[in-house]
Amino acid sequence: MNVLGIESSCDECAAAVVEDGIWVRSNVVATQIPFHAVYKGVVPEIASRKHTEWIYAVVQEALSQAGLEPPDLDGLAVTAQPGLLGSLLVGLSFAKAFAWAKNIPFIAVDHMLAHLYASQLVDPSVTVRAAPVAYPFLGLLVSGGHSIICRVDDFDSLTVLGTTIDDAVGEAFDKVSNHYGFGYPGGAVIDKLAQTGDPLAFSFPLPKLYKGEHRYDLSYSGLKTAVINQLEQFRQKPASQIRAEDIAASFQKTAVDILLRSLFRAVEDTGLTTTVAGGGVAANSYLRRLLGERQDLRCIFPSPELCGDNGAMIAGLGYRYLIRGERSPLTALACARVKAFKRSYP
Fold first, then answer.
1. Up-side HSE of residue 22: CA atoms within 13 Å toward CB?
2. What pairs with residue 2 in β-bridges?
3. Any residues with CB less than 8 A from the CB of 187 and at least 6 apart, and which?
4. In what order do the strands lie in the sheet with 147-154?
5. Which residues contact 289 (CB under 8 A, 6 or more apart)?
6. Whole-angstrom distance, CA of residue 52 vs CA of residue 258
7. Cβ atoms of 296 and 50 closer than 8 Å
8. What is the CATH T-level fold of the domain 137-302, as seen in this structure?
């Protein structure tokens, strides 16, 4: 069963074809980074316009790389939530029209559930597939817009245990990188700088979330403020010895420590020893290394190219709904936010 997946939740215009919910036959991502870099962040108006300009060609390229024509498709999946509303509407509207015109079964899916599904996808060049991940497991969803620790009982059943009360981890990476002129996007730039930096050059504080049921919650506004506005207060070696690489490494260490402190609390409390990561920050080398060092845990990451937004994860997840007989109406709406994915404090 070949499913076309379309993803346009933010600034990546993406389409892919996945066979039987596993095998990635094509995966095309048209990045808008050069158009947003000058503004040091995603500009929603530019993002939606670029999606409008590019989406037809991106879908055509995905079909071409898979060696398929529209009549060969058995289904079409598209992101409907969460994300930038204008960007979502471009992909959703195109997908509806395409599915209606070609008489293809259509399903609208949740972008964050798709990130959790990404680790199950396999390149067709791989001859032996690893054993599927058994439910339940803990999910670690980390991106520019979301930081979520959750219990996952099925591909479409997610219970949020902890989430950010302010900034998401990827957003903090971008803002710190922007302030110090490291470059854009911040996650990849800081990860690279940190490779040769001293992670102990600064001792940044971890958030203290004690009120109410916030044992697994996350906060990055304090860390962001400390790195940008209070750097000298946390310096651990002479100022003359401090380099940009040290700032990057110390910030990255604390950002990841905040994530893992809450994740390991969830491991302890739930008894679940399998963790599946997803989202752009899941490509971070320091996060992957620390989780890989835990011999008592099974930690599963998507391939780096499937950590960011892509159509393959949408197609893979869509397949699971479609084989269950589910369809979305052509009146399906886009939604910018999912209430459960963020919460306030206390």
1. 11
2. 19
3. 144, 170, 173, 174, 177, 280, 281, 283, 284
4. 157-163, 147-154, 137-142, 274-278, 298-300
5. none
6. 38
7. no
8. Nucleotidyltransferase; domain 5 (3.30.420)
Beta carbons within 8 Å of 339's beta carbon, 6+ residues apart:
none
Token pair, residue 137, equals 């497991």
Residue among 149, 123, 153 at smallest CA distance from 282: 149
Question: How is the chain split into domains, by residue range?
Answer: 2-123+306-341, 137-302
pTM of the model: 0.95
User: What is the phi/psi pair of residue 152, to 5°?
Assistant: -115, 115
Q: What is the DSSP letter of 261?
A: H
How long a stretch of residues is the chain? 346
Cα distance between residue 259 and residue 162, in whole Å: 10
The CATH T-level fold of domain 2-123+306-341 is Nucleotidyltransferase; domain 5 (3.30.420)
Q: How far, in whole angstroms, is CA 171 from its chain's centroid?
A: 12
- Beta bridge partners of residue 70, listed in sequence order: none
Per-residue pLDDT 10s for the chain (346 aa) are: 999 999 999 999 999 999 999 999 999 999 999 999 999 899 999 999 999 999 999 999 999 999 999 999 999 999 999 999 999 999 999 999 999 999 999 999 999 999 999 999 998 676 566 677 899 999 999 998 999 999 999 999 999 999 999 999 999 999 999 999 999 999 999 999 999 999 999 999 999 887 778 899 999 999 999 999 999 999 999 999 999 999 999 999 999 999 999 999 999 999 999 999 999 999 999 999 999 999 999 999 999 999 999 999 999 999 999 999 999 999 999 999 998 888 877 7
Helices (H), 205-307: 221-229, 244-270, 285-292
Please return the burial class of 270, using the count of CB atoms within 10 Å of its CB with bins 0-12, 13-18 and 19+.
middle
Fold agreement (2-123+306-341, 137-302): yes
Q: Is 211 exposed, middle or buried (0-12, 13-18, 19+ CB in 10 A)?
A: exposed
Tokens 């032996």 label which residue? 128
